Amino acid sequence: MSTSNLASNSSATSSSESLLTTLSNLNLGNGLINFGALTTLIGSTVAESLVLGNRGTAGISWAAMSAFGTFSIIRACMGAAMPGWIRETLGLRTKACDLAVGMRLRLDGRRKVRDMLGSPLAIMCQDNEMSDVYAFDQATSALLEGTTEPPSDSSLVVYTYPNLRFFAPSKYHVDLIFMLLSLLKITEIYVLWESGGLVLGIATALPWSVFFSIAVAILITEKHPTDHMGSLDLLTGQLPSVKRIGGRRLVVLGLHGNPRSTFIWWRVAWSIGALVCTSSILVTYANLSSQPSIVVILWTAFQFLWLVARIIVHYSTASSDQPRMLAWTPLHQLSPELKSRLLNLTLALGKSLTYVHPRGEGVYRKDLFSSQRLPAILDSLSDQYPLEDEDAAIHVVVKAVIGDTVLSAAAWIIGSKMSSMDLYDSCVVMVSYSGKIISVPAVRVLSGPDPVSATDPENPHEPAFVPKGSGNLGHNLKWHYWIPTMGETQSCWLHFAVPGAGALGKHDAEVLTDAQVNAMLSAGQLNIGLRKVDELRDVLRASSMGAQAFRQFY
Fold first, then answer.
1. What is the DSSP letter of 388?
2. Positions of E strands within 344-425
3. Cys-Cys link to 52, which of 100, 258, 338, 520 (CB 3.0-4.6 A)?
4. Helices of type H across 222-371
5. What angle do CA 101, 271, 110 make, to 5 degrees?
6. Element (H or E) spanning 484, and its range?
7. Cα 187 from chain centroid?
8. Beta-ladder partners of 495
9. What is the spatial distance between Cα 272 and Cα 231, in angstroms, rounded to a whole number?
């Protein structure tokens, strides 16, 4: 019996020594392709979510614990650190990135990127910056989902933080515990050092040390939401377009912005993290091929251990965002400050509509999208342009123009039944007259070359009436303005045409009677949709109603 046990022990010892010898002779460091696949695929989603702060401060310190998923960390950091239009163009936009920083574009161009994104979800104003939103971050989404239902009628209500003390549950101790647990990464460095793989251990631990430091800085400097109003205003719902009537609208004023999308130091931290992770992965690749097999085995075991632990941390920590309750207030009860902020949102919506307008954004660039002149326009509103001598040369000095996109935005905000197509040719023109300012609702129609004449100059021009909502060739465009005035015996129109977006400044105008305007329109030489002066008057009434919509904001 003892002889049998002795033989068994001897066999086990021999097998162990044989296994160690075999492992020592394995050249696992050459399997870099397999390692690349692991670092790309394994744990990538969890690592991406953690490094972007979607699971709180503690999650950041655990994001780079395992080398598996490093490529996703690099991609997430690069995407979050870049402006939205670059993120979309380079293909760095992901669901986790949207949850962290959202997706928005400033209203200053980026037409090609907007064409790829489709219709925006919301309009945002923050610190005099206008943006359209294509994805909400998770804090904003949670906030909007918690809004109470407004009254069932079409009157506008505005949501703000209620005048109540807000207490955010503290996660300081939980975050601190998880962050201290991440210090176990030092064990890996020590074991690899003892096994002769110090460089490999340091290279792998460097990203962890950077994100651990970032997490510590956040934990120390993190501020809880205050009871004061924030600088972010939001307009969302079923936003209108030129050819689509808007539906339910939701206005939220005074939000606190998401620090991850507004504070520059977050972008700096992500940029540093991306650089460090890139350097780490390169050094790791270079060292794995020259390491003994036992070091590679130990290193791989630690990465799998941290991978499992990272997944556990991800599902054990809560979201970093604590939504507050919102309360609604009717429009007429808003303070002047809040009405001013609502007006800025309305102007931003009007500017956003220019990017999806069939006429093209370029012809609207000189329109008024600032609220500074609006009080003067409303105070000087007149039904007609004063005309002293209809036979004299008329020089109209245009100071500002409120276009159809802004008028339709204001009408939709206050709950008017007028659609963008009803206001398609409407405008309000602010002019200088005898040293004073007069604002007059008017008619403005964009005219372009006839497509047939443009392709075949020898073909005789037939009367053409282009329906509203049609596109144009993009060149040789003119705005035709008709401003109502009063002659000696009958009502008249001041008519002038300006190229493209150049409406501001001094223009020579002609005085036309209703009969002359009728003849001009019915000839079909302007390539517009209006056929007779009665249609011009219908548009003029819409312009007046659109202008009156702005009085709701004062």
1. S
2. 394-402
3. 100
4. 259-262, 264-288, 293-316, 336-354
5. 55
6. strand 478-486
7. 43
8. 482, 510
9. 28
Q: pLDDT, tens digit, for every residue of 456-502?
A: 555 555 667 888 877 776 677 899 999 999 866 678 899 999 987 77
For residue 528, the 8-state DSSP code is B
Contact (CB, 8 A) for 427 and 454 = no
Share of the chain above pLDDT 90, in %: 47
Closest CA to 96 of 213, 260, 272, 208: 260
Structure tokens at 363: 């012809």
Q: Which of 247, 363, 275 is CA-nearest to residue 64?
A: 275
Q: Where are the beta strands (DSSP E) in 346-425?
A: 394-402
Q: Strand 327-330 vs strand 157-160: parallel, antiparallel, or unpaired? A: antiparallel
Kindly state the helix (H) or strand (E) to which residue 141 belongs, with its residue range: helix 138-145
d(CA 213, CA 309): 19
Q: If you count them, how many residues does the chain have?
A: 554
Mean pLDDT of 7-21: 42
- The position carrying tokens 């912005």 is 257
Sign of CA dihedral 197, 199, 202, 205: negative
Residue with tokens 């002019």: 431
Q: Residue 401: phi, psi to the nearest 5?
A: -135, 125
Of 50, 45, 48, 46, nearest to 212 by C-alpha is 50
Task: Sort residue 486 into left (φ over 0), alpha (ψ -120 to 50) or beta.
Answer: beta
Residue 476 CB: number of other CB atoms within 10 A? 12
Report the relative pairing of strands 249-255 and 157-160 from DSSP bridges: parallel
What sign has the CA pseudo-torsion 262, 264, 266, 272? positive
Decide if 255 contacts 137 (C-beta within 8 A).
no
How many Cβ atoms sit within 10 Å of the Cβ of residue 372? 8
Q: Which two tokens stand for residue 494?
A: 């001041």
First to last CA, the chain: 103
pLDDT digits (tens, 9 = 90+) for 413-425: 998 889 899 999 9
Nearest to 407 by CA among 328, 349, 466: 349
Which ranges in 159-197 belong to alpha helices (H)?
172-181, 185-194
Provide the CA 67 distance to its chain's centre, in angstroms.
32
Q: In this predicted structure, which of 207-221, 284-298, 443-457, 496-510 has the lowest mean pLDDT? A: 443-457
Angle at 449 between CA 531 and CA 242, to 5 degrees: 65
Q: Which residues pair with 505 in a beta bridge?
A: 398
How far apart, in Å, are the Cα atoms of 398 and each of 48, 428, 540?
53, 11, 18
